[in-house]
Amino acid sequence: MKMKTKVKVIGAGSIGNHLTQASRRMGWDVVVVDADPKALERMKNEIYPQRYGKWDESIKLYTPDKEPKGGFDIIMIGTPPDVRMKLALEALKENPKLLHLEKPLCTPDMKGVLEFNEELKKHPGTIVVVGYDNAVGSALVELAGMLEKKTFGEILTLDVEFREHWRGIFSAHSWLAGPWETYLGYWKRGGGAGGEHSHALHLWKYLADVSGFGGITDVKSFFDFKKERDAEYDYLATFLLKTASGKVGRVIQDVITFPVKKWARAQGSNGFIEWVGNASPEGDLLRYQIEGSEMVEKMVAKKRPDDFYCETLHYKDLLDGKIKLADSPLSLDRGLEVMKIISEGYKAAGK
């Protein structure tokens, strides 16, 4: 009889709940670990039942002193970025088949990355991924497939924007009064627009790869910073990117835009395609036109939990060998490149 996939989720916050529910939706066995007993209590009594209807009694909750070690197929680290690399290093020593690190990969100073990469060499059987879930959502998988087939001819330019006022984040984290009470309000800890909405940079990089742009050769970045109580964060992060093929594109990320705008556009020599994330309560929108044909607008059904379910489906395909890590949009290499761009951007801004 085939054994059930065993998953350990580290972090009982918002992301930890999403990863747990998606894993249970897959039929996987899940344990959750958090250093704060109150966070585990909040997960069981508030977040999980409010989001998904009721608590799942099969989920086992632990504090680190009682944390089970070893024997897990998947370990998912959904903690803030400023503690993630230390936990990732420890997780590697358990030899999971797949290690999920939430985005952004780490803090802008890249602390712990070198040590982690050295340890990873000792664990060739472990797949490491970074949780940029949007890139494996149904609508963007369809978009990327059309770019790969050159449906719109040669892609001339790419633009991606993740512009989202973080009131949505704080409404989902009712226990937080504002950005100063979480890493989100501190760019040095991996928060701010640069880190939190780095989905946009990641998506641009992935779609550029699919479109044959070649590697990024030059980046110009600009930030606007704000101090709020003890917090300091960039509320606007912009990037101009140039690639080996000479193609140029643009990325904008902010935590001030409302209503939300999550958008990507690829302009080709024979048409265009746009993705609008959460275009309606029904899901995402794909809008495209091949030159000489009618405009197509297609809704791709999606709810928020589906973002993480698509992620876990992708992980199953990686584990089953249906997808090679080098071809995965969630590969560690892509997540690391995004973090390097952010890190260099802050340095260029004098931070």
From TrEMBL:
Highest taxon of source: Bacteria
SUPFAM superfamilies: Glyceraldehyde-3-phosphate dehydrogenase-like, C-terminal domain (SSF55347), NAD(P)-binding Rossmann-fold domains (SSF51735)
Residues annotated as transmembrane: none
GO biological process: fatty acid metabolic process
GO molecular function, one term: NAD+ binding
Domain 3-hydroxyacyl-CoA dehydrogenase NAD binding: 6-48
InterPro entries per the UniProt record, alphabetical: 3-OHacyl-CoA_DH_NAD-bd, Gfo/Idh/MocA_Oxidoreductase, NAD(P)-bd_dom_sf
Pfam families xref list: 3HCDH_N
Protein name: 3-hydroxyacyl-CoA dehydrogenase NAD binding domain-containing protein
